[in-house]
Amino acid sequence: xxxxxxxxxxxxxxxxxxxxxxxxxxxxxxxxxxxxxxxxxxxxxxxxxxxxxxxxxxxxxxxxxxxxxxxxxxxxxxxxxxxxxxxxxxxxxxxxxxxxxxxxxxxxxxxxxxxxxxxxxxxxxxxxxxxxxxxxxxxxxxxxxxxxxxxxxxxxxxxxxxxxxxxxxxxxxxxxxxxxxxxxxxxxxxxxxxxxxxxxxxxxxxxxxxxxxxxxxxxxxxxxxxxxxxxxxxxxxxxxxxxxxxxxxxxxxxxxxxxxxxxxxxxxxxxxxxxxxxxxxxxxxxxxxxxxxxxxxxxxxxxxxxxxxxxxxxxxxxxxxxxxxxxxxxxxxxxxxxxxxxxxxxxxxxxxxxxxxxxxxxxxxxxxxxxxxxxxxxxxxxxxxxxxxxxxxxxxxxxxxxxxxxxxxxxxxxxx
Length: 416
Description:
The protein is built from 15 helices and 14 strands. By secondary structure, the protein is of the alpha+beta class. The N and C termini lie far apart (67 Å). One of its GO terms (biological process) is cholesterol catabolic process. It comes from Mycolicibacterium aromaticivorans JS19b1 = JCM 16368. Keywords: Cholesterol metabolism, Heme, Iron, Lipid degradation, Lipid metabolism, Metal-binding, Monooxygenase, Oxidoreductase, Steroid metabolism, Sterol metabolism.
């Protein structure tokens, strides 16, 4: 019988509260990279899994998408909820987004939305992003000299962008914001609807109810937006199932919003913490592209994804049995000392920057180009106008093991 490597430090990856303590989390992950890069984790309330913390190993696993599949366990959730979600999917009634499925169905579904995130489509959206950036920086001027940047600016700017892409009415924006925060805030006492698994199912049902009505409307009266493209899509001549259609909306509306809002709030926090880098960016605006990549590397809005081995294999010499799950810690990969020089340093000019915040391989984030463009538009508008900026209180991070970041960022500032 093979003895499993079990390092106590790996338990942090199954602790939502650990992600609210940056120093403690990064300390534990640095220890794992050095001493137990493949560690078995068996924590009460969760199905066991292997924690993978090295950049090279994560890339290698992502490349082998036939050996390591997304189904049946794409993300880390408590076992009760995992059981419920699996049962629902097996019955054809559960959430089945791009992150839940594998090729060839994944490839076919991905094609439906791909054109909306290609360079041509992004150029068409760029003017809207720039317009919204001006609007929200203008709101900062009006609301100053203090505000909670995360809740008053960062959550709203990307919400407007993604729901513009979907073609949803502005009157529905507050509802979408609440649902997306409940979906990804299930481990955070401030955002969760309730503590049990049924609360998360209720959130998903609310999403499905909203988008089911929208699908019927777009099929009867198509418009020039992504919602209509999804509602009227076909695969092999057949329309999408109701679950595939609803799931597609959920992943675009929620992941497309919450990840970018986390990137924007966290990006500003890094600039505040590193005034020299802020000044460097103000002096040389041509660094904005690399600055945005560095924000994304450091913030890591998507903390992890999981894969399940479809055959006996090994990672870094450690045997992984068929059916066992691996957790890919992007937070750890993005601080890997073998890939990034001085990885704990925030460097607006870092190049190359091979971060894994958008994943890798066939499941590389569909909306990566949009997220980059949104952040670039916003900080291109904000950074040159900053005369002074500082924290007006302690930042608060979301308790999560999946998607999240800074949830409160009180700042004091003066803008030109």
